[in-house]
């Protein structure tokens, strides 16, 4: 079992300079100096200490959410509803940490990629709230059996985090009340609504399982895990692993600003700011590593003479956090653009990575 490690804080300039002088920027590396050839080691540590734990943390939160839904449906109460809603909030925020890794199992089908069945907004920035409201109401009123097969056949617009949000945070009636007493009454008056809720959380679990299995056990039709293929430079489209990683992060940062996500996502729960904060935490950990990392991408950038680039990235991360703290959407868009630019220029240039693509929204 891969253990999710706590995120550390940024390395300071003083520590970085001292490490360069000593010829060893990474931690506990003995006498061997860091150079650009260590990128494969940094990638392996990023995968094992950051990416896979993030995949597993999302699965854990989805599992907890599913259990909260079952507990609520068994014994509806204000406390059980609060636990259900809190479980959704945490799951949504964890998804935004995982979303910077939108490749491999999450995006392995050109027509029906897994990520769209988790987060319908991510595809093209369309808010499908009215769609899921209509679908939930229709399922409640219908007589069709609300089982796993029925929900597995639904299109991406009608399932995922948004659908669970609607089922958990508002009534299925035309008023769409968000008052706890009204939501409880809605479930009590419409027993099939619990069937909908449980099936929707079950579908989230399906995709969380799929993602973890792809990374750790078997990817698509191959005999190997995506971890193995990624670290052995055997990606099916021929991309270099470091290129795949940098482009994925850049695309998500671009998506957050281009699609005005902070004002669109989580329309009922209202935790989009916390979700984007989770994204920035994930980006920072990817670059600087966890407390157990001995060589990170930042370490390589510093060792190859690019301390200024690291300082620029860290400064932009700090500006994003300031915009989040003040909930300044305009400043968030600007500062996300700065960090997006870092993943197009400073970071690949410092790592001697040729991206060789035209950047766009990526969706």
UniProtKB/TrEMBL annotation:
GO cellular component: cell envelope
Compartment(s) where it occurs, according to its Swiss-Prot or TrEMBL record: Cell envelope
Signal peptide span: none
InterPro entries in UniProt: Imelysin-like (IPR018976), Imelysin_sf (IPR038352)
Coarse class of the protein's main subcellular location: other
Keywords annotated in UniProt: Signal
Domain Imelysin-like: 53-328
Name assigned to this protein: Imelysin-like domain-containing protein
Organism, scientific name: Halioxenophilus aromaticivorans
């Amino acid at each position: 079992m891969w253990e999710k490690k706590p995120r550390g804080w940024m390395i300071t300039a003083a520590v970085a300079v001292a490490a360069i002088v000593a010829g060893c920027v990474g931690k506990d590396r003995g006498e061997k100096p860091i150079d650009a050839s260590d990128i494969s080691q940094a990638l392996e540590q990023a995968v094992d200490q950051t990416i896979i734990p993030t995949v597993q943390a999302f699965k854990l939160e989805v599992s907890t959410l599913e259990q909260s839904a079952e507990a609520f449906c068994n014994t509806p109460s204000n406390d059980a509803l609060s636990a259900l809603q809190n479980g959704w909030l945490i799951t949504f925020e964890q998804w935004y940490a995982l979303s910077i890794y939108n490749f491999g199992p999450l995006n392995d089908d050109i027509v029906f990629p897994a990520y769209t069945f988790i987060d319908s907004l991510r595809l093209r920035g369309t808010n499908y709230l009215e769609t899921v409201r209509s679908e939930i109401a229709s399922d409640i009123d219908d007589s069709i059996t609300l089982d796993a097969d029925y929900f597995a056949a639904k299109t991406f617009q009608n399932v995922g985090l948004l659908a669970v949000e609607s089922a958990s945070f508002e009534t299925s009636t035309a008023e769409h009340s968000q008052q706890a007493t009204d939501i409880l009454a809605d479930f009590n008056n419409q027993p099939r609504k619990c069937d909908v809720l449980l099936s929707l959380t079950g579908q989230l679990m399906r995709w969380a399982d799929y993602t973890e299995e792809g990374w750790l056990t078997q990817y698509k039709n191959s005999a190997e895990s995506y971890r193995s293929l990624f670290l052995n430079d055997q990606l099916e489209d021929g991309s270099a692993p470091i290129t795949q990683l940098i482009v994925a992060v850049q695309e998500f940062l671009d998506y957050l600003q281009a699609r005005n996500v902070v004002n669109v996502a989580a329309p009922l729960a209202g935790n989009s700011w916390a979700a984007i904060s989770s994204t920035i935490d994930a980006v920072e950990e990817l670059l600087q590593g966890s407390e157990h990392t001995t060589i990170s991408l930042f370490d390589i950038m510093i060792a190859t003479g690019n301390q200024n680039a690291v300082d620029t990235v860290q400064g932009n991360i700090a500006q994003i956090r300031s915009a989040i703290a003040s909930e300044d959407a305009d400043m968030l868009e600007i500062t996300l653009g700065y960090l997006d630019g870092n993943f197009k220029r400073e970071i690949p240039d410092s790592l001697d990575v040729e991206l060789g693509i035209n950047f766009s929204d990526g969706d």
